């Protein structure tokens, strides 16, 4: 069997990102930060899998759901470890902040992605290769699962949302304070915390989410935004740290995804201009306008139908009278 | 109808002659020239009689002649009828078909089965078609009793017949079946239970619900409707909804879950067309799937149209001694506007031929089968075919029996032929297991896109009488097969020469124990040629084939 080197199986990419899945992106960024040569390949038929991303290294396979995630797998396989050699206090900080990112921020992102009206984004991330109707069925199933995971139902939606946003704001605040003006979060060198935070921020900046409270929160912390922009060109751009294996064409299912080369797609340019921000008011207005127009059309149709019948009836009656 | 006196030659008319009726009643027994017992009362028209211009009988003359006629002798009359029937076709027209005794069965159901009877033009044809129709009606399983009576037609229309069908519907429309069956491909036993409702809606249909459970490997829940002679067509309509879980973890590291339904038309004359819509989900609970299998996991939607043509002229499926059988099956998947459906085309051909040897009830059986599956669409050579639809060879099915495509190769393990891919070791277990390196690497079989197999089998009775009575006999065989992937990444370039060179061959002999439910074989197999990746074993192997 040909030696494929390190292969990372991800969900497909979109919007200038090599992978559009918020869970797979941190693993990608980590490997890029570590400068390890790897081949990204795409698993497009498993939207509801909880084991992605998957790392195949020789004859060993590691899953994103393993202990420590892909970072843990890489550490145990002795491929790379960005967190080694840290002093104890730094390690403690690292663990604490990583916990905040992986719980508060990731939950808030799940909420914005699934429970706000972002179906097109969800479809593009998870369901772009599935035909109708199974994409609808799986979408419904996953939505239910996210609701369960976040403990949200129709009654407590408002308060749970507020709670999630409060925690996310606190997390951004904490990260911003920790980062200050440094290049990296911990001890001046890239660590797994950088990978986690960058993965989150890249997704937030690139995905065309509507009405994203998270985005607004993030924009309040300039240093985080600047930090992400600085790292973006290095990580998602054309940097080739070590020998890059020739790009392997993965089994190509139909559907849109970014190129399968490990260089990632060209630059951080979005395909369209800054996404239009629509406030709640706008949405309500559009909904009302839609209903208004539907009502108008229905009224016109009804008039035509019933008015038409009256005319015919008169005609028949006249004829009947004449015949009799 | 010609009006002329008859002397037993030329065309004859069988008509109503005054009060005498001509009646024949039969209960599904085949009619032949010697039949006499089935005929209760037969009266023959006189050999000489005058007929009008428009063919009416002159009744008075006939009556007189009848009363004088001492021929109320049933056997003699029967013989006369048989003679007449075997001599010449007796032209007749069916005037009316009456159906009696139906309570909830719709009359259209019976009328559909009686189409040929209505169109009969001679007496012989009428009798034959009546027998067949009777068998078909009984075959619906809906009636307890079914009697077809052929009567003379109305007096004013000579040369006609009335057919009366009397049925009695079953009181108990339910029937159930529970059994334990062996599934040779996965080498497990499954518990099957079926419940059938016949004629629930009065259309002669059979509704069945089936549950099938095999410990840890297969479980299936399905329900179907079989509607015979759908709307006047010669075909039955079959629709089926299925939820099926099939476990291939041991061989290929995946488990598939299918939810789907199919709709088909089956023609008794060997044609079958069906449409299938299935949601397939492949997952890997072992977390050890190889690189190739991991790319197959996930959700897929199959929307396919399949046409099967079958001819089976063998004298027996379980132990054929003469005749031939041929089947061709074509399937096109990807029916629908969505380009994300599974897209492939699959063709399978199989031919069997049996030649009797003349001594010791022996027979020589030949068979060959081939199949190919290819994806279609843009860039199809780099797509790989779905693993659930590929061809696999090897296992515990016997060479004879029903035609199942190129899948049987004795001596090789289940899915034991063809390319393999090494399984990956999950990182969390790899570290803790110190002996992992010494154990041989586990592999996943990937199957092939092109498969060809053939066999020769000689069978004959053993010289012991008691074994002969039970049907136990011996057989010797030689079989060969090969399969190879055609598309997808990682495929090696292949050539016809390479394909022929890598054929797997095995031979052997054994004993066959045919029973009502299945055919059991105990064979000693000797592998003549195999490839290094195959899993095959020389030695004793047990094969099981069920007649379904």
From TrEMBL, chain A:
<feature type="domain" description="Metaxin glutathione S-transferase">
    <location>
        <begin position="169"/>
        <end position="231"/>
    </location>
</feature>
<dbReference type="InterPro" id="IPR050931">
    <property type="entry name" value="Mito_Protein_Transport_Metaxin"/>
</dbReference>
<dbReference type="Pfam" id="PF17172">
    <property type="entry name" value="GST_N_4"/>
</dbReference>
<keyword id="KW-0472">Membrane</keyword>
<protein>
    <recommendedName>
        <fullName>Metaxin</fullName>
    </recommendedName>
</protein>
<keyword id="KW-0812">Transmembrane</keyword>
<feature type="domain" description="Thioredoxin-like fold">
    <location>
        <begin position="22"/>
        <end position="117"/>
    </location>
</feature>
<feature type="transmembrane region" description="Helical">
    <location>
        <begin position="291"/>
        <end position="309"/>
    </location>
</feature>
<feature type="compositionally biased region" description="Low complexity">
    <location>
        <begin position="256"/>
        <end position="265"/>
    </location>
</feature>
<feature type="compositionally biased region" description="Pro residues">
    <location>
        <begin position="243"/>
        <end position="255"/>
    </location>
</feature>
<dbReference type="InterPro" id="IPR012336">
    <property type="entry name" value="Thioredoxin-like_fold"/>
</dbReference>
<dbReference type="InterPro" id="IPR036282">
    <property type="entry name" value="Glutathione-S-Trfase_C_sf"/>
</dbReference>
<keyword id="KW-1133">Transmembrane helix</keyword>
<dbReference type="InterPro" id="IPR033468">
    <property type="entry name" value="Metaxin_GST"/>
</dbReference>
<feature type="region of interest" description="Disordered">
    <location>
        <begin position="238"/>
        <end position="280"/>
    </location>
</feature>
<dbReference type="Pfam" id="PF17171">
    <property type="entry name" value="GST_C_6"/>
</dbReference>
TrEMBL record, chain B:
<dbReference type="GO" id="GO:0009707">
    <property type="term" value="C:chloroplast outer membrane"/>
</dbReference>
<dbReference type="GO" id="GO:0005741">
    <property type="term" value="C:mitochondrial outer membrane"/>
</dbReference>
<dbReference type="Pfam" id="PF01103">
    <property type="entry name" value="Omp85"/>
</dbReference>
<dbReference type="InterPro" id="IPR039910">
    <property type="entry name" value="D15-like"/>
</dbReference>
<keyword id="KW-0472">Membrane</keyword>
<feature type="compositionally biased region" description="Basic and acidic residues">
    <location>
        <begin position="17"/>
        <end position="49"/>
    </location>
</feature>
<dbReference type="InterPro" id="IPR010827">
    <property type="entry name" value="BamA/TamA_POTRA"/>
</dbReference>
<keyword id="KW-1002">Plastid outer membrane</keyword>
<feature type="compositionally biased region" description="Acidic residues">
    <location>
        <begin position="50"/>
        <end position="71"/>
    </location>
</feature>
<dbReference type="Pfam" id="PF07244">
    <property type="entry name" value="POTRA"/>
</dbReference>
<keyword id="KW-0812">Transmembrane</keyword>
<feature type="region of interest" description="Disordered">
    <location>
        <begin position="1"/>
        <end position="72"/>
    </location>
</feature>
<comment type="similarity">
    <text>Belongs to the SAM50/omp85 family.</text>
</comment>
<feature type="domain" description="POTRA">
    <location>
        <begin position="93"/>
        <end position="169"/>
    </location>
</feature>
<keyword id="KW-0934">Plastid</keyword>
<feature type="domain" description="Bacterial surface antigen (D15)">
    <location>
        <begin position="199"/>
        <end position="544"/>
    </location>
</feature>
<keyword id="KW-1134">Transmembrane beta strand</keyword>
<dbReference type="InterPro" id="IPR000184">
    <property type="entry name" value="Bac_surfAg_D15"/>
</dbReference>
<protein>
    <recommendedName>
        <fullName>Bacterial surface antigen (D15) domain-containing protein</fullName>
    </recommendedName>
</protein>
């Amino acid at each position: 069997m040909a030696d494929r080197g390190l292969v990372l199986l991800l969900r497909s990419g979109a919007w200038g990102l090599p992978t559009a899945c918020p869970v797979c992106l941190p693993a990608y960024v980590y490997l890029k930060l570590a400068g390890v040569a790897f081949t990204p390949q795409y698993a497009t038929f498993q939207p509801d899998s909880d084991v992605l991303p998957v790392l195949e290294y020789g004859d060993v396979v590691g899953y994103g759901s393993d202990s420590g995630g892909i970072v843990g797998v890489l550490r145990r396989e002795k491929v790379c470890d960005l967190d080694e050699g840290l002093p104890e206090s730094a390690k403690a900080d690292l663990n604490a902040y990583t916990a905040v990112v992986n719980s508060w921020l990731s939950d808030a992102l799940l909420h914005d992605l699934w429970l706000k009206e972002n179906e097109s984004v969800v479809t593009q991330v998870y369901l772009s290769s599935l035909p109708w109707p199974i994409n609808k069925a799986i979408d419904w199933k996953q939505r239910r699962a996210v609701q369960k995971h976040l403990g949200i139902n129709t009654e407590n939606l408002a308060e749970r949302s507020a709670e999630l946003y409060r925690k996310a704001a606190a997390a951004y605040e904490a990260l911003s304070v920790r980062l200050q003006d440094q290049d990296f979060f911990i001890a001046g060198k890239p660590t797994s915390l950088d990978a986690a935070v960058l993965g989150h921020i890249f997704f937030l900046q690139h995905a065309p989410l509507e009405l994203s409270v998270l985005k607004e929160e993030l924009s309040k912390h300039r240093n985080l935004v600047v930090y992400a922009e600085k790292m973006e060109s290095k990580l998602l751009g054309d940097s080739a740290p070590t020998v890059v294996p020739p790009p392997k064409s993965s089994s190509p299912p139909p559907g849109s995804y970014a190129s399968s080369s490990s260089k990632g797609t060209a630059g951080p340019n979005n395909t369209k201009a800054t996404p239009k921000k629509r406030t709640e008011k706008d949405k309500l207005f559009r909904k009302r306008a839609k209903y208004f127009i539907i009502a108008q059309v229905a009224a016109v149709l009804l008039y035509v139908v019933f008015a038409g019948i009256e005319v015919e009836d008169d005609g028949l009656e006249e004829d009947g009278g004449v015949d009799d | 109808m010609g009006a002329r006196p008859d002397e037993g030659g030329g065309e004859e008319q069988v008509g109503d002659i005054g009060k005498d009726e001509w009646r024949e009643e039969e209960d599904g027994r085949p009619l032949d020239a010697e039949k006499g017992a089935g005929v209760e009362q037969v009266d023959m028209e006189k050999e000489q009689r005058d007929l009008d211009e428009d063919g009416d009988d002159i009744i008075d003359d006939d009556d007189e002649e009848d009363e004088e006629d001492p021929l109320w002798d049933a056997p003699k009359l029967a013989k006369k009828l048989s003679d007449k029937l075997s001599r010449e076709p007796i032209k007749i027209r069916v005037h009316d078909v009456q159906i009696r005794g139906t309570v909830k069965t719709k009359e259209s159901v019976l009328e559909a089965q009686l189409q040929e009877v209505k169109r009969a033009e001679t007496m012989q044809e009428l009798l034959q078609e009546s027998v067949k129709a009777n068998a078909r009606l009984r075959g619906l399983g809906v009636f307890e009793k079914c009697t077809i009576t052929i009567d003379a037609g109305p007096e004013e229309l000579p040369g006609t017949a009335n057919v009366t069908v009397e049925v009695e519907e079953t009181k108990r429309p339910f029937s159930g079946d529970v059994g334990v069956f062996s599934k040779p491909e996965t080498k497990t036993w499954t518990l099957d239970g079926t419940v059938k409702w016949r004629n629930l809606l009065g259309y002669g249909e059979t509704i069945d619900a089936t549950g099938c459970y095999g410990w840890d490997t297969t479980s299936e829940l399905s329900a179907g409707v079989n509607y015979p002679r759908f709307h006047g067509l010669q075909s039955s309509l079959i629709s089926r909804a299925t939820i099926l879980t099939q476990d291939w973890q041991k061989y290929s590291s995946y488990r598939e879950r299918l939810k789907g339904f199919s709709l088909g038309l089956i023609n008794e004359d060997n044609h079958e067309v069906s449409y299938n819509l299935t949601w397939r989900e492949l997952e890997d609970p072992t977390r050890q799937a190889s690189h190739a299998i991991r790319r197959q996991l996930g959700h897929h939607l199959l929307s396919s149209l399949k046409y099967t043509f079958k001819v089976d002229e063998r004298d027996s499926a379980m132990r054929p001694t003469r005749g031939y059988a041929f089947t061709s099956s074509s399937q096109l998947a990807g029916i629908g506007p969505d380009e994300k459906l599974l897209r492939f085309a699959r063709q399978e051909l199989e031919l069997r031929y049996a030649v009797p040897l003349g001594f010791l009830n022996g027979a020589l059986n030949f068979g060959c089968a081939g199949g190919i599956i290819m994806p279609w669409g843009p860039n199809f050579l780099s797509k790989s075919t779905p693993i659930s639809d590929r061809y696999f060879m090897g296992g515990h099915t016997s060479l004879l029996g029903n035609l199942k495509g190129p899948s049987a190769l004795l001596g090789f393990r289940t899915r034991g032929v063809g390319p393999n891919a090494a399984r990956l070791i999950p990182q969390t277990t790899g570290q803790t297991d110190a002996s992992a390196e010494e154990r041989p690497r586990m592999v996943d079989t990937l199957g092939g896109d092109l498969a060809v197999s053939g066999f020769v089998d000689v069978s004959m009775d053993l010289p012991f009488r008691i074994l002969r009575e039970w049907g136990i006999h011996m057989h010797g065989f030689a079989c060969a097969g090969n399969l190879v992937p055609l598309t997808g990444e990682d495929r090696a370039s292949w050539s016809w020469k390479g394909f022929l060179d890598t054929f797997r061959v095995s031979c052997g002999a054994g004993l066959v124990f045919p029973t009502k439910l299945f055919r059991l074989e105990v064979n000693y197999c000797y592998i003549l040629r195999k490839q290094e990746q195959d899993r095959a074993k020389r030695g004793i192997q047990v094969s099981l084939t069920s007649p379904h």
